[in-house]
Every structure is written in structure tokens, then in C-alpha cells.
Amino acid sequence: MPLTKISAPKHLPMEKVRALANAVQEARVETCKVPPDDLFQTISRFEADELIMHPSFEGMQRSADACIVEIPLLGGRTDDQKRALYRVACEKAVAVGFRADDLMIALIENSRVDWSLGNGLAYADVAGKA
Amino acid sequence: MPLTKISAPKHLPMEKVRALANAVQEARVETCKVPPDDLFQTISRFEADELIMHPSFEGMQRSADACIVEIPLLGGRTDDQKRALYRVACEKAVAVGFRADDLMIALIENSRVDWSLGNGLAYADVAGKA
Amino acid sequence: MPLTKISAPKHLPMEKVRALANAVQEARVETCKVPPDDLFQTISRFEADELIMHPSFEGMQRSADACIVEIPLLGGRTDDQKRALYRVACEKAVAVGFRADDLMIALIENSRVDWSLGNGLAYADVAGKA
To answer: What is the model's pTM?
Structure first.
């Protein structure tokens, strides 16, 4: 139950941004024990002066292609699952043409009663019963 | 003190998206004991390939009109208030023409010192004193 | 390690919105003990009917220029640091032409393992080692 929000520069081709979105989803499935169809993503595009990322903070070397992925998600992943998510998402992003320094990820946790998938029901009350 | 962020497909008429925004606000007022003028919302529009929602996860049956509502809000609502919020928001969304499966909601909680309405003051220091 | 997300009306000149972004960043550096190059911001623009802020909730008097700044950030700032952040950000926003009532801020906290700056590594594992 995450919502993966991708902020990408406008100059990137949509197919490359979609490949990044897929990379993050595949990484979640591989590392966080979520089913593949737990898939909710938004892609927002920004002009160069609307997506500001410091080029070298903490030793990074960012290019103009750098993207930010913000993921509100159901809490419960372990620290090691989060580490694996970052590592695998980065590997898969590199495999589709991104530089390893150009993927920033931020997680925001909430709980099962904080989601409603639809039908006016809390996820806490329906999970696994469909 | 919530910020209701609505992500809607571009093909939906603005009046329908605004009706959804109103539905969510009315549901908050009815179920979460917030005053009607505690009203802060953003509406973001997405192309079909920028707003990705699995069509059937957990038994949902989503159409191309499905929207995501993400609400950073002041913590303190009970689980039952959250359940009521989902139920009433969905009922009101249906009343303005949405399908019940087409409204996904995510809540993200914070605390009173995490908001400033303006004037450089924390909400924790001014709430109810205006 | 924050991501400063600025939601601004489309009618505002970009230079004024960038000045607000700089104001918030400078305020963070001055009040929250973060280095100046810890700089990550997005700027999203909204039509008047897409950015809804109640004009007078809790005694505010908002104009059409009002902006919302939402900041997912690493937890650990004290309440007084947050208060100082609001105060100084507001002062600096006023200095670049905003009204004091036209800057709303919301903070959302997470932890060190919830960020990856890049290279597939958790911030918790690399902070200060670059």
C-alpha cells in the first residue's frame, strides 16, 4: 500500500520515466514482499528551475536527469528491507539508463487504517479479503 | 489542519473534480469534527500514463476516472473517525458521479507543532485563539 | 534531509516563487542546523481553482498570492527549532514581497533510514561520510 510519487525533469522522455517507475515497483516487489498488483504511482514533470537538487550534497554527483521518488507507504518494512529497496531500485534504474547518483528516494510511513483503496472502506478492514 | 491533495485524470471536467474536493471536505467536517473553514486543497491533473492505479488490486474495479486523495493531517482522529471519513467521502463522491471504486485515500499524520497557517507562527501556539 | 515542496499560484512570477524557495532554505539553515547544500525543492504551479486556501481560517487574511510549503523532513528538530523555522521563513518571505499571512507550512517527519540520496544507499549509512 504505497503511493509512489515520481518527480522527473520535463526533458526526460516519458518512456525513460516510465522505466524508472517500473524499476521502483519491481524493486518493491523483490525486496518488500508486496504483490506486483499493489501498484499506485503518479508522475509529475518539472522544468529545470522547478526541480532543484543540490549537485553534490553528501558526495553525490547529480546530472540534469536526476529524479526524486517520494513514497508514502504502509509502515512495517524493516530497515534492511528499506536498504534493499534503495539498492535494488538503484540497480534497476541504472539498467534502464539512469546514473546511480540520479535517484533520490524518500519514504513516509503510515498505518493500515490510514488507507482506503476504495468503496469507502479502510484497508485495515479489507486487506487480504478480496 | 489537513492539506487535501487531489490527483485527478486530466480528462475529468474541472467541475467534477471540484465536486470531489467538496465531497472530501464535507466528509471531513461531518466525521472528524473539523470546522468547515479548515479548508486547504490542491488539485493536480495527470495524463493517463502519469496516474497509474492498478485496475483490480484487492478486488477493486477501477475506471479511467479514478482519483487519489492524499491528506497530510493533524493526528488525533480515531480509527473509527477515519473509517467514517472514508465511508462518507465515498458516499458523497458517488452522489456527484464517481464510482465507489474510483476514490483512493491516504492519510499522513503529523502534530500541532508541524503546521504554520501563516504569520510565522506554529499552529500549536495559535489554535483557537483567533 | 528535507524535500521542500512549494505549491504556488501560476500568476506569481517565477522569480518571486524562487525567492520564496530561497527564503525557506535560508530559514532552514539558520534555524535547524542544516548545511546550505542540503537543498532539495520542487515548485508546482496551480491555477486559482486548483489551489484552495480558506481566506480567513484562524484569523488569517490570505490574498491570491498565498503559497503552501510542505516539507517531508528527517525528524529530530525540536519544537522550538520548528517555531524558529516558521518565524524566520515568514520574515524572509516578507522581505521578498510576500504578505505574512500568505505562507502556510506543513512538516512531515521521517527517520534516517527513510532517505536515500542516491547510489542505492540509505542516508542512515552514509551521512557525514562523504
So the answer is: 0.97
